[in-house]
Amino acid sequence: MIKSLVGVCLILSVSPIAGGAGLRAAEADSARSLDAARSTLDKWVETQGIISKERRDWQQGKEILMSRIEAVKKEIARVEERLKEARAGKAKTDEAAVQLTGERRAIAEVTEALAAHLGDLETRLRALFRILPESLQEKLQPLYQRMPEDPANDRISVAERFQNVLGILNEMNRVNNEVTVASEIRPLSDGRPSEVKTIYVGLGQAYFVSARGEAGIGRPSADGWTWRTDDAIAPDINLVLEILQSKSSPKFVPLPVDIR
User: Fold this and answer.
1) Among candidates 142, 256, 162, which has minimal Cα distance to 207?
2) Domains held by the chain: number
3) pLDDT digits (tens, 9 = 90+) for 45-82
4) Using the 8-state DSSP alphabet, how is residue 149 labeled?
5) 221, 250 in Cβ contact below 8 A?
6) DSSP 8-state class, residue 209
7) Which of 18, 29, 100, 242 is deepest in the core (most CB within 10 A)?
8) Would the pTM count as exceeding 0.90?
9) Are residues 246 and 197 part of one domain?
10) 187: domain range?
11) Spatial distance between the Cα atoms of 29 and 27, rounded to a whole number of angstroms
12) Are residues 162 and 212 in the same domain?
């Protein structure tokens, strides 16, 4: 009986000690759990901050990227518009080039056709040179000298040759439609060269008179101008000269004409 009481007392004496240790263990566990919870909460808050920052950064990056994409789209649209204009311009250029090529071909064909007759035209002009009045020959001499003797071996272009021919023809046409007066030296009845006044009516008829009253009529021929004396018309020629020089009133003056 005594042993049993001792055991109970031991148990009772040990129980408070065991209860205090358990309480402290429970408090320690609670503290650890609280620390763990705080640590977890801190990490969660930190994680949420990181997520929030990443979301803001992503949003900003998205906006920047979208603006860049929009700018690139606009640039692409501008480039496509320029390409469209360039293609349209190229099409027009190609069309103009084709048209220009056709025009050049047509010009070349016309030039070739004209060049085929140019040599004959120059030959005929050389023959006409001999029947021009002396004053007109002197004026046209530079143009005649520019006409090539052998067009096939000459460096003068077809265009330059045509300019020479047209220059000669224009001057001849002008003189042929006018009445001109020239001072010339011509041998008269005594065989001595004398100064005469010559009136050219175009390129088909002429009259001359000298200070001594000798007069005559001239006409062009294949060998140049031929003259025949006719002193009877001297007064009429002098009257025509006075009219042309505004020394006399205009009036009808009959003069002989050789028609062939």
Assistant:
1) 256
2) 2
3) 888 888 888 788 778 877 887 888 888 888 888 888 88
4) S
5) no
6) E
7) 242
8) no
9) yes
10) 179-260
11) 5
12) no
